Fold this protein.
Amino acid sequence: MFNREVLLVNPNRMRPPIAPLGLDYLAEALAHRGYEPVLCDLCGAEDWQHALDAAVEAVRPGAIALTVRNLDDAYFASQDFIFETTAAMVRHAMARSPAPVILGGVGFSIAPCEALRYAGAPYGISGDGEQALPDLLDCLAAGGDVSRVPGAIYWKDGAVCATPPAPFVPARQPARKRRFLENARYFAEGGQGGIETKRGCGQACIYCVEPHAKGGHIRLMPPDSVADEIAAMLDQGVDVFHLCDSEFNHPPEHARGVCDAIVRRGLHDRIRWYVYASPVPFDEDLARAMRRAGCAGIDFGVDHVDPVMLRRLRRNHHADAVRRTVKACRDAGIVVMTDMLLGAPGETHESLARAIAMMREIAPDCVGLSCGVRVYPHTPLAAAIRRQGPLHQNPHLHGCLRENDDLLRPVFYVDAAVGGELPREVTAMVGGDPRFFHADPTESDGNYNYNDNSRLATAIREGARGAYWDILRRLAQ
Ligand code: B12
């Protein structure tokens, strides 16, 4: 008989540790469908082989499901391809257990067929897992045809195949009680809890994985359920959050609804929270509503402020909107970070200089500078690059350019007009201004990579809480 115990594996060993939120949600959905989720968290394990062996031996699970949150750290200076270790974990699990190994997660869904092939796993799910994972398990238990499971990634005649995902219906999900993970421990070591208020993104930014990995239309969690979830986390002692939406203010009415629900429930004075957001749509009213509901900081995905670059990136804001948005936050008492993406197609020395000078003038509390754009498969940027010929002959590309046509391993675009000297040039332009977070690979300081960041991990152990950029900002003061 098929053992209904399902081993849910977290392979993410980055520090500070981020709780695998996807597994908390999946565990609830699995239990609702009569499965018994069992956690195997390799995050803090001294020896992951030993921890995985012990879990497999103790549970003898009916299936082993791994969450793949990150393929790599998407950071030009380090280019850490984490998925290599995850693939080793997959092979290890397959060698130790006859149970089917299933992959999923946002990192996996960036390139699901490519990732399944790389890891050699038999099954995967692309996109939302709450419905699809139990469906796949039911199908495997019944010896059915997995190609009928929406979102399934599987092998057929030596090739990897995909069935399109089905839309996620938040209202059909069980209440999110958040009891599967050790959220209190993650809070103590990672400094923040995670909660999702929506999924998906309908925008068309040329470099971004969200529409492919999370779906092109937005699915909203009912605001009162978000408030219930916050209350459930508060009961576990977690009172500082980073919301896990790609952009909190899309659509703005829902953002407002979530803020109102938090206030209605009387939670606003008991929590602090941070979000990612887009510079538009945003106004003073939303800033005030967010502040009132406990929002402490916003990281805006600005990318650039040069009009030509913004058009090329297919962003729909302009510099004036960024200026207004930053001011609205400051007036409301919200700390602001703006994230910039430098080196994209069309970047020149002049556009770089304009961007940095203008951000200095707009004066958010801090500015993240990403040098080089990670080229992900299934994005408009990847399609444009493929039209330009082989990767290794493309003067704009850096990283793993051979035997990597599927772009699974990190490849970064830096327009040849600014070239490989980009980080050093940016260091010179920043001129030591501590508000700018910038990683020059030749310097050890200024690291705002959250992958193995010992400064951050130490600060959190000593009591710091909040978004990592805000902790680093406070450390720099
Ligand atoms: C919020 C966020 C952060 C916050 C986390 C806050 C928190 N407390 O959780 C912060 C700022 C800390 C952060 C840090 C980083 N992040 Co981040 N982050 C996100 C974001 C926006 C949300 C992640 C999330 O929790 N989603 C909600 C959960 C519920 O979704 P999920 O995990 O996908 O799970 C669902 C499905 O995928 C599926 N599923 C999940 N697991 C499994 C397993 C199986 C078997 C199945 C069947 C299904 C399944 O079911 C779940 C429910 O439907 C994502 C992008 C996104 N929209 O997801 C980027 C994202 C994951 N981050 C990314 C990166 C690069 C990082 C960093 C490495 C950056 C850096 N260099 O510092 C670090 C890594 C930190 C770490 N320790 O892991 C990239 C990863 C890309 C890549 N190359 O792999 C993403 C995709 C952003 C992007 N567009 O580039 N991040």
The two ends are 60 Å apart (CA to CA). The mean pLDDT is 95.
